[in-house]
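User: Before I run my own analysis I want an independent prediction to cross-check against. Here's the chain; please return only the structure tokens and, at the end, one sentence I can use as a sanity check.
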Amino acid sequence: MTALLMMLLAGEPVDLSAAERKQAIETFKVRGEWIHPAVIQEFLPWLSDHERPIVRSMDVAAALETNRYFDEVKSGPTGARVERGEEGFIAYEWLGRTQSGLHVVVSRLATGGSGVFTSLGVFKLTDAESLAADGKPYRSLVLSIVRSVSLGDRVTPKLNIKGNVVSGTVECTLPSCTSTTLRVSL
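Assistant: Structure tokens:
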């Protein structure tokens, strides 16, 4: 009974055209909208864990129009944000692409306390073939994390991309910490 109810409530999977997948790979946007911030959050290691991401890849097209990623997204010119009331927010800013085509984002996660935890994420988007539950092939838009770097709590990164290097300063807004220089070669 539960499985039948879930099938009735679930929407149809979203099939992206080849042109839509290509545009997403170039822009980090799907059908003109930034990738959902909660998708980016899936890749972020928990603060209480080590820095290696547990989730390494996800089909972004499969995440579209699902109950799991239903939050209202506020989009800006360089990224997106989801507000969660007293539970905080998840947001990211897309810095652009490296020479090799990797996407660089700075994410900010607030979980309801005073902390706003900032991370640098480097992602790769690919057009891949997958198999549906019935065994039929379909095209998927796979987002994979290449690198994740924790930047700290309540920091303001001022980063740029040159070739395959992300560099700049990470300014701390707390009196108990100092600003640092960051250089990440990809």
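Sanity check: The chain has one domain: 2-154.
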